[in-house]
Amino acid sequence: MKIRNALMAASLVSAVAVVIPVVAQAAPKSTTTTFKVDATGKGVTGGMGIKTNALAKGTISINTKTDEVCYSIATSGLKNITMAHIHRGAKGVDGFVVVTFNIAKFNPMTMASTCVKVAPAVAKEIVAHPASYYFNVHTAAFPAGAVRAQL
After folding, report:
1. At residue 2, what are phi and psi to the nearest 5 degrees?
2. Who wins on pLDDT, 30 or 68?
3. At residue 43, what are phi and psi to the nearest 5 degrees?
4. Mind listing the pLDDT tens digit for each residue in 63-89?
5. What does residue 146 show for φ and ψ, rounded to 5 degrees?
6. What helix, strand, coil percent values describe the chain, rounded to 5?
7. CB atoms within 10 A of CB 3
8. 10: exposed, middle or buried (C-beta count within 10 Å: 0-12, 13-18, 19+)?
9. How many distinct structural domains can be found in the chain?
C-alpha cells in the first residue's frame, strides 16, 4: 500500500509539472480589436443623414501594437463621397475627427480596404472606450454626414 501511495504521489507531481509549463505559455493577449459597423442615415445626429437605404457596412480593426486602424467598408447608395472618419463622440453627439480614412479608396469603388497609422494614444483610447467614438461617411449632398454608426 505504501508503494502504491508513493507511486500515485509521484504521478501527481509529474502531472502538475507537465501542466504548469503549458499554463505559463498561454497565448499572448491580442493587440487587435475589431468593430463591426453598420452606418445608416438614421445614425446621423439631428436627423440630418441621408433618408434612403444608403449604408456603409464592414469592419474597423485597431491594432494597439502597430498603432494602425484598418478598415474594410462596403458602401451602397452613397454618391460623391467626400470624407470618411472616426470621430470622438457618444451616441447622438457630434465630435471631432480622430482618424481620417483615404476617400480615394471609396471613390468610385463601393468597397474600401486599407490601413492608416494613428497616434498610439488614439488607438488605445478608441479600444478602451469604443462607445465614445463613431464612424461616418460624408457626401457632397450631406457634408455634415450621410451615414453614421457608433463603434
Report:
1. -65, -40
2. 68
3. -80, -15
4. 999 999 999 999 999 988 999 999 999
5. -95, -40
6. 30, 40, 35
7. 7
8. exposed
9. 1
Range of the domain at 51: 32-150
Q: Is residue 13 part of a domain?
A: no
**Is the Cα torsion angle 45, 98, 115, 124 positive or negative in sign?**
negative
- Whether 16 maps to a domain, the answer reads no
Q: Report d(CA 46, CA 53) in Å as an integer.
A: 18
Q: And the C-alpha cell for 131?
A: 462607445
| pTM beyond cutoff 0.85 | no
Task: Establish if 58 belongs to a structural domain.
Answer: yes
Is residue 27 one of the residues assigned to a domain?
A: no
The string of DSSP codes covering 18-47 is HHHHHHHTPPPPP-EEEEEEEEEGGGSGGG
